[in-house]
Design a protein that fits this description.
This protein has 196 residues and is mostly beta strands. The protein has one helix spanning 2-13; strands at residues 21-30, 33-34, 44-47, 50-60, 65-82, 85-104, 112-127, 130-146, 152-160, 163-164, 182-183, 186-195. The protein is elongated and about 60 Å long.
């Protein structure tokens, strides 16, 4: 217990330039992802847009260059629409685990730090009564971090996050024989970031 307390106070006493690790708690919105290929009479087939939450941990090797690992989870629905109206086919979840390259602008002690990010990883699609699937996913985006204090700040980001589907055998993306190469979504996330 004493060792943990000593480590905690050592981290608090570290100068700002030594703070190279960040932990973020994120929440926001992911847009709907349209399924392009539809059966005759089906005008709308999409993974609905919904609330997304997650965490990210980053380590910066210099004032500008770093690596980040992130996990986000989206609870959604597969929605179908015809001339008669829309209906939910089933509830589903999309989880994503990614490793990303991060480049941030500005000086080390700056309160505002714009950043760009590019990553790759896996998305996990699941629904009740259907087998879950893992798909390759990548992302590109950018955002802004604001640190009113040395250790605690806020973060806002926007990312393009396509999921590579690439098969017609998936029950989650393809319940009735229609699928496509990619599911195209955007996420808009914000949250609290803590530097160590």
């Amino acid at each position: 217990m004493r060792a943990r307390a000593a480590l905690f106070f050592l981290l608090l006493a570290a100068p700002a330039y030594a703070q190279r690790t960040e932990l973020s708690l994120l929440g926001g919105y992911t847009t709907a992802g349209d399924i392009d290929q539809k059966a005759v009479g089906v005008q709308k087939l999409e993974v609905a847009g919904s609330f997304t939450w997650g965490v990210a941990a980053a380590h910066f090797f210099s004032d500008h260059v770093g690596a980040e690992a992130s996990w986000v989870q989206q609870g959604s629905d597969l929605v179908i629409g015809t001339a008669a109206g829309d209906a939910e086919l089933f509830d589903m979840k999309l989880g994503a685990l990614q490793g990303s390259f991060v480049y941030q602008f500005g000086a080390a002690g700056a309160r505002l730090r714009p950043f760009l990010t590019a990553g790759i990883g896996a998305s996990f699609l699941s629904a009740d009564d259907l087998d879950g699937e893992s798909k390759v996913a990548w992302s590109v985006g950018g955002g802004l971090k604001w640190f009113p204090t040395r250790r605690v700040g806020v973060r806002a980001q926007a990312r393009y996050v396509p999921i590579q589907l690439n098969d017609s055998g998936s029950e989650v993306c393809d319940p009735f024989g229609f699928c496509q190469a990619s599911l195209h979504q955007f996420d808009f996330l914000g949250g609290v970031v803590v530097r160590f």
